[in-house]
Design goal:
Blueprint: H1 3-33, E1 39-43, E2 46-53, H2 67-89, H3 94-117, E3 120-128, E4 131-132, H4 138-162
Antiparallel strand pairs: 1-2, 2-3, 3-4
Helix pairs in contact: 1-2, 1-3, 2-3, 3-4
Length: 163
């Protein structure tokens, strides 16, 4: 791997690390200042809340008995390795690598939670009336942003290939 590729990879890993650090700081604050289930009203549609999620997105497999913790950690480790490989191979593709950095930072943030706590700490509660979107965290937001950027990158790539 050349010097330019190493520098490019370092930038993307730095972005992922920044996301990881901000995610973990927000979770530490929630764990320090909120009891499980405690919430603070912010607006008519937004609360800050402490929720523990032992499953995946939308609490998928939350009641599976504990094996899912290690399953999701394993998926996170494999996915992180694959994303590093992709970033190295495509270091000059800014939008693609930015997307992967967001996904990686968020995924590692949630893996850290699973390793340290056995669950993921969630804190953002969007709601309309009595309907509540599943609570989420900064890591989940970074993953979502990364997926949006990946979709945009693919749309732009297809458009470029047609011309």
């Amino acid at each position: 791997m050349g010097r330019a590729q190493t520098a490019g990879l370092g930038k993307w890993l730095g972005i992922a690390l920044l996301i990881l650090v901000l995610d973990q700081l927000s979770k530490v604050a929630i764990l320090l200042y909120y009891q499980l289930g405690e919430s603070t009203y912010l607006t008519e549609w937004l609360n800050l809340v402490r929720v523990h999620n032992s499953g995946a997105a939308f609490s998928f497999l939350a009641g599976a008995g504990g094996w899912q913790r290690w399953f999701f950690v394993g998926i996170g480790v494999v996915a992180t390795g694959f994303m590093i490989y992709l970033m190295r191979a495509h270091a000059g593709q800014t939008l693609f690598c930015a997307a992967l950095a967001c996904i990686m930072g968020g995924a590692v943030g949630n893996v850290v939670d699973r390793l340290v706590h056995g669950y993921v700490v969630d804190m953002v509660d969007f709601h309309i009336g009595s309907w509540h979107f599943p609570a989420f965290n900064l890591a989940d937001s970074a993953i979502t942003l990364g997926v949006i950027l990946l979709l945009l990158d693919e749309i732009l790539r297809v458009r470029r290939s047609r011309h």
